[in-house]
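Pipeline run #58 for the internal structure catalog. This entry was flagged by the ingest filter as a single-chain record with no existing model, so it goes straight to prediction. Upstream metadata was stripped on purpose; only the residue string is passed forward. Reviewer on rotation: M.T. Logging verbosity set to normal.
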Amino acid sequence: HGDLADVLRATVMRLRSVSVNRDIVVLVGGPSFQSAPDLAQYVGADAEVGAGADAARQARVLLPGHGRLYA
């Protein structure tokens, strides 16, 4: 996957290990993730989204009952 993917993977792992929010959700997106469908899973993301509006919709699905989410 490459050095940047490895850095992102380590960052996501670190984020999850230090966050007091055990239900933290990580969304990723952009051309790199769209061209490599398995990259989101590799870095440890919960979902890959295309556009900003898609991210807000996906967050609402992954975080039901959390009220309004600001994108």
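catalog note: The CA atoms of residues 16 and 22 lie 7 Å apart.
catalog note: The radius of gyration is 13 Å.
status: ready for reviewer M.T.
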